[in-house]
């Protein structure tokens, strides 16, 4: 997810700053632009929140407990659809692979994600 990439690039940027007196000499324009992009489009800003999305406490993660493929997990985590219709439009396979008995299960998953975002 974008938020995970942002955390990784931030850590790398900090490491580069510690190595050199002039941190800009250690980073390329591509690195800078990539960092700016993922920060801008990250739905979750706090590292603990990112961890919660992947590792929801006391049971499997909000997204992976629904047996989502990595691609599906990333799309839903990055775009944070608000309705079942949006989620199915973005990731049609969540409905077609038979992992969800009905739309209520998808609604619950989206609700759990929105709660995490709300309390960030």
From TrEMBL:
It is found in: Nucleus. Residues 1-120 form the RNA polymerase Rpb4/RPC9 core domain. GO terms for molecular function: nucleotide binding. SMART domains: RPOL4c. The keyword Nucleus applies. Keywords: Nucleus. The keyword Zinc-finger does not apply. Belongs to the eukaryotic RPB4 RNA polymerase subunit family. This is RNA polymerase Rpb4/RPC9 core domain-containing protein. It comes from Colocasia esculenta.
